[in-house]
Each structure stands twice: as structure tokens, then as C-alpha cells.
Amino acid sequence: MNRDSGIYVAGHRGLVGSAIVRMLQPKGYTNIIIRTSKELDIKRQADVEAFFEKEKPEYVFLAAAKVGGIIANSTYTAEFIYDNIMIAANVINSAYKTGVKKLLNLGSSCIYPRLAPQPMKEEYLLTGALEPTNEPYAIAKISAIKLCRYYNEQYGTNFISVMPTNLYGPNDNFDFETSHVLPALVRKFHLARLLGEGKYETIKEDIKRFAPDFKDDVVLYLSKFGITNEYLQMWGSGEPYREFLYVDDMADACIFLMESYDHKDIGEFVNIGAEEEIKIKDLAALIKKTVGFEGRIVHDLSKPDGMPRKLSDISKIKALGWKPMINLKEGIRKTYEWYLSSGKGVKR
After folding, report:
1. Domains annotated on the chain, with CATH
2. Active site amino acids
3. pLDDT by residue (tens digit) across 227-244?
């Protein structure tokens, strides 16, 4: 990419897209093209085609997606498969039709079979059944990978796909109903600590950032999400292992690949991960300590655990010269500091 190349970042307000924009700017890239969802609905084919014809970006980071944790994936099944298939199909096809030089498509490690051997290598794709709790999202992401592959084969495009592990960091989604486990726990422990300190008005301010019409009793409202001043309730046993990658590392890997490598170097797709895993219950203990909550952690064993383990094999991207830099303890600290200072939370 040249410093004045037109670079379209789809999903620039999201976790990954915002990190990519944040890291492109200091590198001197001056022609970053962005649109909010109100300005461009990328689920609408005609709108996307008109946008690409007008702007003619040379490079595309496809970071837009409908995402969420187990609750959201299980509740909005049709939306997750439809929205994500339409986003990928519209952007990838328009990139081909307008001659985009390179496109980077972001997937998810949930594409792998539920019982895939660990750590998960790229060649394990479609070798077994998917995890039921996120199957619609996984199918949409697999479709995007295959679109990139077959456009490359038939049309000679240069579209690459990356499969990140679980991501977290600034601009993450902290809404209880749609967030992933790490940001959800950060916010829950934060509110549990405030509840124990009797800071009810501060809690109300936090809740109203996500539910502007909130008028309920604070204690009753938080109890619906397993938050009390004495304990915090978590879904499942806490025994599954998960791998978490700080989003700035993810953005760095994406830009590294876009600047230096083509689809012939990468193959169908490449994993991006942190090379360390942790049990969910140990993750909760680490976040609890970081936030400063002194109560207990209890587990709701009636709720699903999801995949028992998800560790990415990142030997392929490491061989290209990239590796993660931010460990989990540091990343959680940075995430909580951002939450407190960003208007998504309230400082002590």
C-alpha cells in the first residue's frame, strides 16, 4: 500500500476496524475511507455497488460484521447468518467489480469444528461438526473465506482472509446481552464492585449508557445478570479454555499482511492468535483482581459452556515474521482503563 492509496475500512467503529484505523494513521496513510452504518448499509447490494463505483478504493479491510457472545448467537440466529453473509458477499463482489488491488477479510476462530484437534491448524476447516451455539455465525464466516478463495481462482483477485482468535480491547462491546465473555466480565465485575461500595448513582450512569430509558431499581436490575454485592454469577462451569488477543496486536497483524503478502503467500486463510490460553474461571479471577471486586464467583451449571477449547496454531503467520506483543494481564488492564476513561464506564 502507498501512503496515499485509497483504503476502505468497513466497520471502522467496531473493535477491529477502529484499531486498524488507529494504527494506519501514525504510519502515514492519509486516504482512509470510512462510512457509518447510517451513511452506508453494507447489507444492501445496490448501495455497496454505488459506493465502490464512486470511491474506487484500492485496498479494503473487511472488518464489518454482526457479532456477539453465546446469548446473542443463540438468540439472533437468522440475523447472524443473513447479515454476515450479505456483508461479505456485497463487499467482496463489489471489490472484484471495481478492481480493488487487495482485500483483507476478517473471519473468526469459531469456523473450526467443535472438537477440532488442538492447537487448531488452518487445514482443520470443515473436518467436523461446528459448535451449535455459534453455527450461524460460523457458516457465514466460512462462506466469506470461500468467496475470497474462489474469486481469486476464477477472477485472479488478491483477496486474503485472516482468522483471529477471541479479541478484546478499546471499543469492544460491553452490552450484557450481545457482548463476548471478556468485556462482559470486565463490566460485570466493575458494577459488582460499585454495588458493594453503595455507589448507586454511579451505577445508574453506567446502565443508562447502554439502556437510556432505565428507571428500575439498581439492585434488582443487576441481579437479572447475576451481579450482587457479594458474588457474581457466570454462565457454565468455567472449565473451557479460551485464547484472547488484544485488538492492537490484531490490527498490527492485518496491516503487516496487507503491506507485505498476497493470497499466494498465505493460502486460503491464516490464523492470528496469542499463543496462550486460559480457563474461563481463571480469566474471571484475573479480571476480578484487576477491577478490585472482593466478592465470590459462582457458576450457573444449567448454562452452556460452548466449545471446550479453542487455541489457534499461528505457526504460519509467525513464519512470515509476525508475533503478538501484548500479554493477557496487560491487555485486561489496558481494556479496563479504556472502559473507565471512555464514557463507557465511570472512574473511581
Report:
1. 7-171+244-276+308-326 (3.40.50.720)
2. 137
3. 999 999 998 999 999 999
